[in-house]
Backbone:
């Protein structure tokens, strides 16, 4: 029904004035609770498609790791456990600050909300910064398949504890690094989208948008942010940790 | 328990999103548990459990993920619809991964 059709129906337009309701309640919902439930349900459906998306990458990792096991073991030895652990801690901190942000929004505390959102934003940027340092190191060590890759480290390892791989298996480390870049890259892309949205939310929250009863946007963004955190919780052990002793 | 009583018990569960405010204390505890889990999984990776290194790492990761989903993402306090949606999603994901792996394992696993 277009706006003109609404205007020609007497009474429909006045319906707005007849009953009291929260200004953020849309007319096709019966109550604020129903509206909130519907938007949360929609957000979860979106997150399920994200689970399937990352799930495909995880399955590929699982299968290739079993196919080219020695290549995946030496590949994972090239990652820095220290930077990986640091980044995990940073991301968990950002999830905590985000949860506190949702809490502040529920309590309608504007300055607190802005503070927590800024903290989340900063931590998100720190994560991306550390990730950039790691990527840069990969580039310097010639571990970027397709652009800058050399099997030298795997056929003639400098570390005495590392066994040299035969040429054909050493080539397969490219599969490991391809998956490393695909998985952490998609995760980083989600982080970049996340901090971009956060920037908008911070400006809006500063203007008092999410501390007057309407908070589904903050709540749903929180769900997104925590989901990205969960993806990293699985990426970290799978890429960095599980092949330390092989 | 009669059927009527049983229904009454079910009815006490929220059928829609009630504004349940989780206290910062709970967030703090979950935050601590997640950091502890991170420390634990790193420490466990330095110990040699053979094939169980991967199992331990994934078990810790799953525990952390469940904590995030239940408390940070409020699923523990959400409606049955949301709980069902989340559970159905993860279940479907597990079915897909299991079926794929079943296929690969049954085709000359390890003989490449």
Residues:
């Amino acid at each position: 029904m277009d706006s003109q059709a609404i205007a020609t129906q007497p009474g429909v337009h006045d319906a707005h004035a007849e009953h009291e309701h929260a200004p953020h309640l849309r007319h096709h919902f019966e109550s604020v609770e129903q509206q909130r439930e519907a938007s949360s349900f929609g957000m979860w459906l979106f997150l399920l498609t994200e689970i399937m998306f990352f799930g495909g990458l995880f399955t590929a990792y699982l299968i290739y790791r079993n196919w080219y096991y020695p290549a995946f073991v030496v590949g994972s030895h090239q990652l820095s456990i220290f930077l990986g652990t640091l980044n995990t801690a940073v991301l968990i901190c950002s999830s905590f600050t985000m949860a506190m942000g949702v809490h502040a929004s529920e309590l309608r505390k504007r300055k607190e909300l802005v503070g927590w959102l800024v903290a989340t934003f900063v931590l998100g940027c720190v994560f991306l910064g550390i990730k950039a340092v790691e990527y840069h190191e990969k580039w310097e060590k010639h571990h970027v398949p397709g652009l800058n890759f050399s099997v030298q480290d795997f056929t003639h390892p400098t570390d005495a504890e590392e066994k040299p791989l035969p040429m054909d298996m050493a080539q397969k480390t490219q599969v490991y690094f391809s998956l490393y870049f695909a998985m952490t890259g998609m995760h980083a892309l989600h982080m970049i989208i996340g901090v971009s949205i956060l920037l908008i939310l911070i400006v809006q929250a500063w203007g008092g948008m999410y501390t007057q009863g309407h908070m589904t946007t903050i709540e749903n963004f929180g769900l997104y942010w925590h989901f990205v955190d969960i993806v990293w919780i699985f990426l970290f052990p799978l890429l960095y940790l599980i092949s330390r002793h092989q | 328990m009669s059927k009527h009583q049983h229904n009454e018990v079910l009815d006490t569960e929220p059928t829609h999103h009630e504004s349940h405010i989780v206290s910062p204390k709970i967030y703090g505890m979950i935050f601590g548990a997640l950091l502890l889990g991170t420390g634990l999984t790193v420490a466990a990776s330095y110990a040699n459990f053979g094939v169980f290194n991967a199992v331990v790492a994934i078990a810790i990761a799953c525990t952390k993920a469940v904590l995030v989903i239940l408390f940070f993402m409020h699923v523990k306090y959400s409606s049955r619809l949301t709980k069902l949606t989340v559970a159905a999603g993860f279940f479907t994901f597990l079915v897909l991964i299991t079926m794929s792996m079943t296929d690969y394992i049954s085709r000359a696993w390890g003989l490449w």
Summary: Strands of chain A lie at 143-144, 148-149. Confidence is low (pLDDT under 50) at residues 1-15 of chain A. Residues 30-241 of chain A form a domain with the Four Helix Bundle (Hemerythrin (Met), subunit A) fold (CATH 1.20.120.80). Residues 76 and 240 of chain A are 6 Å apart (CA to CA).
